Structures are given as C-alpha cells and as structure tokens.
C-alpha cells in the first residue's frame, strides 16, 4: 500500500521535488492505465518518465538479504 503525498499535493510541485518512491508509484499506476488516459494524463505520465530518466532511473544499486534492487514505493 502506498503511503505518501497524493496527486493533488504533488501536482502543485515540480517533478524534481518528488521523492523516488512517489515517482515510482505514480509511474506504475499511470503505466497500467495508459490506454485510458486523456491528453492531460498522458502529459503528466510523460513528465514523470522524463524526471525518472533525468535521475538516471530509480533502481537500487545494491541488493542484500533484506531487499532486492527494485525501488519499493510502499
């Protein structure tokens, strides 16, 4: 379950101020709804993807016995 700021609050902020977990969560959510998004939704998703790319991705660099390399947005 996602615990963090909602889209209403985040939409008033620059994507560069979002946490990695917020980018990961909303990217995943919007990615599943791409066929149903209107132009505004597609634009927001594109901005999120560009911010993730600007950060060099959001994957962990290391894994250990307590977590893998995938960023968790919970």
What does this structure look like?
With 74 residues, this protein is mainly alpha-helical. 45% of the residues lie in helices and 0% in strands. It has 3 helices and no strands. Helix 2 crosses helix 3 (39-54). This is Cytosolic protein.
SSE blueprint:
Elements: H1 7-10, H2 20-32, H3 39-54
For the termini, the CA-CA separation is 5 Å
Helix content range: 40-55%
Low-confidence runs of at least 5 consecutive residues: none
Strand content: under 5%
Order of helices and strands: HHH
Mean pLDDT: 87
Task: Please give the largest β-sheet.
Answer: none
Structural category is mainly alpha
Approximate shape: globular
Number of continuous helical runs:
3
Radius of gyration: 13 Å
Q: What is the number of strand segments?
A: 0
Write a brief caption for the model.
The protein is an all-alpha fold and 74 residues long. The chain has helices at residues 7-10, 20-32, 39-54.
Keywords for this entry:
0% strand, 74 residues, mainly alpha, globular, 45% helix, 3 helices
């Amino acid at each position: 379950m996602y615990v963090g700021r909602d889209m209403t609050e985040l939409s008033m902020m620059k994507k560069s101020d979002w946490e990695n977990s917020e980018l990961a969560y909303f990217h995943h959510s919007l990615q599943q709804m791409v066929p149903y998004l209107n132009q505004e939704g597609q634009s927001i998703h594109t901005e999120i993807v560009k911010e993730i790319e600007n950060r060099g991705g959001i994957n962990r660099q290391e894994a250990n016995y307590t977590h893998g390399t995938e960023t968790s947005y919970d």
